[in-house]
C-alpha cells in the first residue's frame, strides 16, 4: 500500500502554530485572594479529587507507559490508561492475532496506542481520527516508538479517509455513550450515529478473510452497537473480556456473514 500524505505529527495549522501564555492581571489576583476561605478550600478539595481519580490526566500533557512502551498524551486526546479501554484493547494485539503481512485500520486511534501495537506485528497500519489533536498525538507516538515507517495517520470521520480500501483487521475503541459530544475530547466518549455508520461501512472495508475487533463497555450503551452489527448480519463472538468492580470490558470479533468477493 502506498504511503499517503499523512499529517506530520509536529505540524499544525497556522492558527495553532503559536502558543501564548497569559499572566493573570493584578486585579484578578486580588479578587481571588478575597474569596471566602471556605470557597477556596472547596476548590482545593475538588482539584485534589480530580487528580486522585485521574481526570486531570485528560487536560494536560502526559507521558504514559502501556506495557513498557511510552506514549505521549496531549490535551483533548483520549488517554489509554485512565479509562482502561485503550490499554485493554492493545493488550490483545500480538503475534498470535496478527500476521506479519497484514494491513490494519485503527479507527478512532486517539493517542495511537493500538496502531503502535499493531505496527509491531503487521506490515502496515492506517490510523484515523476525527480529532486533529489526536492525529498529531498518534503521529508523535509512532515516532516515539520508532514505527513511523509502518503507520500512516489520517484526519477524518470514520471510513472517509480510506475510500475503497480493504484491511485484514479493523480495530475500534468507539464512543459507546449515546449523546451529542460537547467538544473534541468528548467525541471519544459520545455520539448519536457512530454505531450505525460504522456498522454500515465496515464490510466494504474488510478483505475476504478480514475481521474487526470492537471494544464495548457496560459503562456505555454497547447494545446499540451490537444491534447495528446484527442488522448488518455480522457474525459476533467474544475475543476477550475483563471485569472491574464497576465495569466490564468486552472485545467483540465481527465477521461478515456473507463475504464479499
Structural class: alpha/beta
- Run of helices and strands: HHEEHEHEHEEEEHEHEE
**Rg on CA atoms, Å:** 20 Å
In total, the number of strands is 11
Major sheet attributes: 7 strands, mixed
Across the major sheet, the strand order is: 5-4-3-6-9-11-10
Mean pLDDT across every amino acid position: 80
> How many helices in DSSP terms?
7
Low-confidence stretches: 10-26, 28-36, 53-57
Roughly what percent helix?
25-40%
Q: Judging from the principal axes of the Cα atoms, what is the shape? A: globular
How far apart are the first and last residues' alpha carbons, in Å?
A: 20 Å
Our estimate of the beta-strand percent is 25-35%
Topology (elements, then pairings):
Blueprint lengths: L25 H8 L3 H16 L9 E5 L2 E5 L11 H7 L11 E5 L5 H7 L4 E6 L2 H13 L6 E5 L11 E6 L4 E2 L11 E2 L2 H9 L3 E12 L4 H10 L2 E10 L4 E9 L5
Parallel strand pairs: 3-4, 3-6, 4-5, 6-9, 7-8
Antiparallel strand pairs: 1-2, 9-11, 10-11
Helix pairs in contact: 3-4, 6-7
In short:
The protein has 261 residues and is an alpha/beta fold. The protein contains 7 helices and 11 strands.
Protein architecture, described:
- With 261 residues, the protein is of the alpha/beta class.
- 27% of the residues lie in helices and 26% in strands.
- The model is unreliable at 10-26, 28-36 and 53-57 (pLDDT under 50).
